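>> Question from a student workshop board

For tomorrow's exercise we were told to take the sequence and the ligand below, predict the bound structure, and bring the output to class. My setup keeps failing. Could a helper post the expected result so I can at least see what it should look like? The ligand is zinc ion.
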Amino acid sequence: MTLLRLLLATTLVTNLGLSTISHSADSFNILLYHHISSTAPRSTSLSAEEFEGHLQYLKDNEYHVVALGDALKAVQTAQPLPSKSVVITFDDAWRDIYEQGLPLLKKYDYPFTVFVNTDPVDQNNRHAMTWDMLRDLKHHKGSLANHTRDHAYLVRKPEYDDVWLSATLANIEHAQQRLEQELGHTPKWLAYPFGEYNNVLKQALKERGYTAFGQQSGGVAAFSDWQALPRFPAAGRYSSLKTLKTKLASQPFPANYAAFAEPVIRTDHGQNQQPLLTVNLTQAQRLGVRQQLSCFIAGSAKKPIWSDKLNFNIAADNPMGKGRNRYNCTAPIWGQKNYYWLSHQWLVYGGEAPPKE
Ligand SMILES: [Zn+2]
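>> Workshop helper replied:
Here is what the output should look like for this input. Compare the format with yours to find the bug.
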């Protein structure tokens, strides 16, 4: 943000008498939920009581729950966001979001976004919301976006050729078209099923004007990869406020994310299951904590190797197993109790048929 912009923003805020809101953030964090239910699989669920605990925590601690569209636009156009801005998202459009989540979101008057698989809605699946329910969400600060038509594993395919790419894009475009037909204007936002993507798909989506979201942890800033934006999973084992607090207070680790390594490791092509992740820092002067950088792979600490002042590398000590794996790094923010947070998700895949999840 330029100094002039900051001054203008501050003046505007003061003139409007909104001095209680400090518009000073250039990043925001996104929370990711699936079910709000006590009976759905725990790994992607939290109870209505736990969810309300999160909403109350945000309120009590002066977080500003902002609409995804407003937050993305502010960061893309270098306009300041309220400090402590956070966005609430749900994947899959489960009916329990309507039944258990919406009453609470209305009570707190918070905006939110639901990423929808359109086939279950079109097929009147009793666990999915109906189009009428989704239309109702739009009247209560809800925005709807694309999660493919059928929640397919987009990159667990034998080849990443033209046939694969056209079929994958057709799947995404079909969902986009159904959302537009039923709900009117729908932003081109895609949440990858299971947070799985590869660089070819990312590039094709960029060319088609999509912003896309993964399931790796971290915050969103101008230096983010706009076709692999991170979100903090906040259900299942991540629903405890104790751990969520640290994530909510974190800031995006200042790195060049678009240059991160290809996330799919093909064992059938003999690719290295201990891939090297090179992290190129931006704003290195703000980091200033080289010796306090901590990285973790599969729950174990992993010492980063600095190649120069702005670049470090990490790689797993042991070959990663099939499926999704993550490298995580954090560093204390100078002068604060909070952390910069970085995560990269890998998919180790050998060409086999995808599991039923
Ligand atoms: Zn999903």
